[in-house]
Design brief:
4-stranded antiparallel sheet; 186 residues; 25% strand
């Protein structure tokens, strides 16, 4: 049963890769997870820096993305995205790494969570047990602040500096997590 579900998930991932719908930066980690017999990923994001505009009802699905990068950003990129703001609240965010991983057994999920904790990915846990065991691995390095169209350049530069620094920390934790996974074989 587990192997059948894994094969379906990997087939979907291959299709998404061919259609350029994957977050390329996280793929080495995704591949390291998926090569293990007891795990497979269902979703993944390296982390991102975002400028978005909230709708009046503040429903996440209706946010308008004015700028989204799966990497560090420059001041010009962020200012260009901010200049697109037309209404409601404008947000500057840095979201960390997030992975959803199915595990064959509870013991497998325990091993995975120990790797995540050792890598500093403290916001990780089992989020579902039935019909499948699902672990969420999530970083803690977040930036979230409302901004306004006429915000001064100095404040934007500070936001970007903090976000880029946290993005680097996020990337380091991703690499540590990958190394911890590799140690499971030893």
């Amino acid at each position: 049963m587990f192997q059948n579900k894994k094969q379906v998930a990997l087939t979907r991932l291959d299709k998404a890769r061919k259609e350029n719908l994957v977050d390329v930066g996280v793929m080495p980690l995704v591949d390291a997870i998926n090569k293990r017999p007891s795990f497979y990923t269902t979703s993944s994001c390296l982390g991102r820096i975002v400028i978005s505009e909230s709708p009046e009802n503040d429903r996440k699905q209706e946010y308008v993305w004015l700028g989204k990068w799966h990497r560090k950003v420059t001041v010009d990129e962020v200012k260009t995205a901010i200049s697109k703001h037309t209404k409601n609240t404008l947000w500057f965010r840095m979201d960390p790494l997030i992975l959803h991983i199915c595990c064959n057994t509870i013991d497998d999920s325990d091993q995975l969570l120990k790797c995540a904790k050792k890598a500093g990915l403290k916001r990780s846990g089992v989020v579902q047990i039935k019909p499948r065991i699902m672990v969420e691995i999530m970083g803690v390095d977040v930036v979230c602040a409302p901004v306004f169209r006429n915000v001064d350049d100095e404040l934007i530069e500070k936001f970007i500096d903090v976000a880029n620094t946290r993005f680097d920390k996020n990337m380091n934790k991703l690499e540590l997590f990958k190394k911890e996974l590799e140690l499971l074989d030893k």
